[in-house]
Amino acid sequence: MNTKQRIEELTKQLNHYNYRYYVDHFSEVSDKEFDMMMQELQELERQYPEYAAPNSPTMRVGSDLQQEFKHVRHNIPMLSLSNAYSVDELLTWYDSVKAVYGKDVAIAYEPKYDGLSISLIYRFGKLAQAVTRGDGVQGDDVTENVKMIERVPLYIDQPDIKAQSRFEIRGEVLMPFESFAKLNKQREANGEEPFANPRNAAAGTLKSTRSKVVRERGLDVYLYEVPLRFTSKEWEQDQCDLMNYLFGKGVPTAQSFHVGYCVKDGNENYTIDTDCFDRERLEYAINDFVLRRPLMDYPIDGIVFKVANRRLRRQCGATSKAPKWAIAYKFNAERMITTVRDVTFQVGRTGQVTPVVHFDPIPLAGTLVRKATGNNADFLHEMHIAIGGQIEVEKGGEIIPKIVVGVDPCATKDFKEVTYPKYCPECGAPLVKDGSNYYCIGESCPAQLQARLEHFVSRDAMNIQGIGPKMIEEWINGGIVKDVADIYESERLETFFSTRIILSRAESKSVPAHRVLFALGIRYVGASTAKLLLKHCGSINALAAFATACPEQLIRIDGVGVSIVISLGQWFSDKKNLELLSRLQAIGLQMKEKIAHPSGTTQKPLAGLTIVISGVFEQHSRDEYRAMIEQYGGKNGSSVSKNTNYILAGDNMGPSKREKAEQLGIEIINEEQFLNMIENEKL
Ligand code: IVH
Question: How far is Cα 519 from Cα 451, in angstroms, rounded to an integer?
């Protein structure tokens, strides 16, 4: 067997094993055998790259190396969608669309997949880059991670696409319910914090710096938009036809339907009538998805309605945030009535005692919900919450369950009033009321310490991975931890630490100062407040000085209220806390905020340029070009003057503008040249 044949054989076998593993969840060979074959193929492909298959399984091999994500500028900004919550709002949107064309137009509808948007870039049919939405202008290069998603085609074997030096398709990466349940079960077994919803889990996974993690967690993808530049043939203009066509070529596209009823034309072909967006048909479309949704094994949070003809969309234009040719109809949060079984009290990191209402399990938005916060004593009272009484609970895909209505317990026979404790259920110290909340004032309350430590190591705070609630409980029971600094200093704790914890703890020393401040768990100082405070004060030490010496300076900050300032003043005047801070500083945690470059890490490509738009365009509307100029740092000038750097000209450019441009020697560029100017890399 020659080298070429061996490469082909290995490729075929490994692709087969991958298929069996990911699709059938079955391993035909041991991990070791698999890895050895993979190594052999990698080595052969390194020596003879000309024989490597475009769909080689080596392209899916992830590395476990830590990698920072590269920022990549989007060729066309990745916009968001406007939302509608009622049929009336949808009809108003449709009227505005209809006004653009002066007639009815066909509308397509698709699930609004609840994940993260992604842009996949294929060069000559081969997946070259995958970029997250980021801030819409630039996103993170997550190519290696996206290659680990089973349904992402690494190669699109289709002449039209292979002929393109650049073919882009956008869509959503999400986590199916089954993968989500499996992942959270595993995390809980390992004592790790479970993800709140599939969307967060998908985000955490896609941004993981270890591609292997992505492979194991079973992410999926649905693709729904191809920039207009690809459109050449008649059928490619229709959203549903394009989705179906690409699906047939192995691309995991969105399920896209036309609003309206199917009718047969004279040639026995099915078409839809274009006069299609009345209330009745709209309600039919919504109901279609309301019925389908419980059967879907992935999360969706609404329906996206779009002008079906992709070419027509240009005329609708866009605001700087969202296109006008599409709208998202968001499902209302699901609600259900259930019976309260118990109310327990939980002590948080600031000593706040919060009631937790336990009820008969109810299925809501893809998960089984068993409990919800009872907030505080006033809330329990207002909602008539009593054991044996009924409540109505609401949950959307995003949010945590919320009690929305209490059903008067007198309506049910056997109910028991809830009595609020006078002493801390954990340490027995008296509870003190502040506003509507009660606080435990126990100096050494184990529940407070537990919550403080859990918060300190959590993802949005210091992100020290591998330390779970069970492990912390053991430390507290053994009396070997007193405060958060012990995690770095105590020799007795070291015996609990795996290599992973030690590495992650070392990395936490470069976590920015605003997250260190958040990690301290000061009452009312959440993640965004911490960021705001450090943006103004520059360092935690300066903040301490402001909080104790001139708190009025802090109140001036927009978004910082009196209760935050009082809480900061109390925290920073406690000697114990100041000692803790100086220990954390000595350990090497970041105490000073790094100043971010105002325009981000890279210079925007149109910075300092004034561009005047004139004429009618093919690929984008004038509004879209206007938005693009601004998003890429340029200025959109209204008339040609000596300050104009370029004129972006389409068809029928105004003759006076052309004359003036020629007089002043200003360069005239077309759409293609403009799009090349903002493209992240030249082909
Ligand atoms: S079309 C210009 N179609 O929803 C944006 N978006 O809330 C065109 N989304 O950013 C997007 N499913 O990430 C479109 N079938 C679908 C979608 C969808 C989910 C996401 C998308 C967008 C977000 C807006």
Answer: 11
**Ligand 1 geometric centre to CA of 436 (Å):** 40
Range picked from 191-205, 403-417, 428-442 for highest mean pLDDT: 428-442
Active site residue 635: no
| Chosen CATH of 334-440 out of 3.30.470.20, 2.40.50.140, 2.160.10.10, 3.40.47.10 | 2.40.50.140
pLDDT given for residue 272 in this prediction: 64
Residue among 389, 421, 422 nearest 405 (CA) = 389
Q: How far is the CA of 84 from the centre of ligand 1 (A)?
A: 13
In this prediction, residue 651 has a pLDDT band, given cuts at 50, 70 and 90, of confident
8 A C-beta contact, residue 486 and residue 493: yes
Going from the Cα of 321 to the center of ligand 1, the distance in angstroms, rounded, reads 12
What pLDDT, in 10s, does the model give residues 298-322? 999 899 999 999 999 989 988 777 8
Q: Which atom of ligand 1 is nearest to the CA of 322?
A: 2
Ligand 1 binding site (Cβ under 6 Å of any ligand atom) = 79-81, 110, 112-113, 117, 172, 224-225, 254, 304, 323, 326, 328
Q: Which has the minimum average pLDDT: 26-40, 52-66, 567-581?
A: 52-66
Q: Which residue of 74, 76, 79, 81 sits with most ligand 1 atoms within 8 Å of its CB, as the best mutation to test the pocket?
A: 81
Q: Candidates 224, 256, 296, 310: which one to mutate for ligand 1, based on the most atoms within 8 Å of Cβ?
A: 224
Higher pLDDT, 6 or 275: 6
Q: Where are the domains of the chain?
A: 3-59, 71-330, 334-440, 446-587, 603-679
3-state SS assignment for residue 467: coil
What's the pLDDT tens digit per position in 519-541? Answer: 999 989 998 899 999 988 999 99
Q: In angstroms, how far is the first alpha carbon of the chain from the final one? A: 38
Q: How far apart are CA 483 and CA 487, in angstroms?
A: 8
pTM assigned to the model: 0.60
CA distance 146 to 206: 7
